[in-house]
Amino acid sequence: MPAPLFKDINKPAKDLLTKDLFYSNKVEFHTTSDNGAQFVTNAEFKGDGAVSGSLKNTQKFKEHNAEVTATLESSGSLKVDASVSDKLVDGLKVATSVKTGSNDFSISTDYKSDQFTLSDSFSRDKDGKNSVSASALYKRDAWCIGGEVEYDLSGGAVKKSGGAVSYDGGDFALTTIIKSMDSFVGSYSHKLNDDLTVAAQASFGSKPNNSLDLQFGAQYKLDKDTTVKARLETSGKVAATYTQQISDLTKLSISTAMQADKLGATEGHAFGWQLTVKK
Questions:
Q1: β-pairing verdict for 237-245 and 172-180
Q2: What is the CA radius of gyration of the chain?
Q3: Is the pLDDT of residue 235 over 90?
Q4: pLDDT tens digits for 24-78?
Q5: Which pTM value belongs to this model?
């Protein structure tokens, strides 16, 4: 297995604890034309009755190992992402992103090999502030070690820096991330069998009072078409998602989150659903 990018060093636990746990109401359609062009149309229904949406078109140019994605949002803005892979050097991906009506712009490179990965980027945020970042990761057998740094060019200061080490045991993975000298994250994921996967994460120093924040999660496949996922936090927040493959084309996901110590309150709870149609 090739080495991961530094940003993906704790991907198994992070995905289980965060992915598919959403609290918006959305309908999403995926279609592909005869020439391979991909379209994603979505509409999100707000609590105040407003509706927002976007239309995304992805074109792949296989002869050039290139991909261009244009996303038109209901606000009127247009975002364009473009990338070229394995063209200049095997394993090297060059990508750029720009958005109309905004200062947002970025250009980045990722290099992957079996033993190490490198990433760097230049970005400008909506306020016009510039920053550069770089990360590197080295893999040997089941171990990975890496680090990252981000520098604010506009402010002339280091925005963040840190390192991480992980161990991949095949059916389980352990990761320790040092975000700063007083901020640490440890995560664990374990695929117990083909149907059940569990994960946990401990964060220290991520809150103003430097308290220890724990999260526990599990994903279970009830059958080939049905999956449930749940997450429990020491803050008392409980989240769960139920996903049903209704047909070959249609999938429905329902999510909810509640504050267990404030069940009688009107705030602190959330509910969402997403209907996805792929053709």
A1: unpaired
A2: 21
A3: no
A4: 899 999 999 988 899 999 999 887 778 999 999 999 999 999 999 999 999 889 9
A5: 0.85
Nearest-10 Cα torsion for 170, 172, 168, 238: 140
Q: Tokens 């070690």: give the residue.
A: 145
Give the three-class secondary structure for 263.
coil
Contact 121, 108 (CB under 8 A): yes
- The pLDDT of residue 266 is 65
b (16+ CB within 10 A) / e for 13-48: bbbbbeeebbeebbbbbeeeeeeeeeebebebbeee
Q: What contacts 158, CB < 8 A, 6 or more positions away?
A: 149, 150, 151, 152
Gap between the Cα atoms of 166 and 179, Å rounded: 14
As a whole number of angstroms, the distance between CA 144 and CA 68 comes to 32
Residue type, 155: G
Specify the 3-state DSSP secondary structure of 155: coil
pLDDT at 175 over 80: yes
Angstrom CA distances, 190 to 80, 139, 169, 170, 196, stand at 37, 20, 9, 9, 9
Average pLDDT, the chain: 91
Encode pLDDT of 249-260 as tens digits: 999 999 999 887
Q: Which residue has the tokens 């999510």?
A: 255
Q: Find the angle CA(19)-CA(120)-CA(10) to the nearest 5 degrees.
A: 30
Give the pairing type, strands 183-191 and 25-32: unpaired
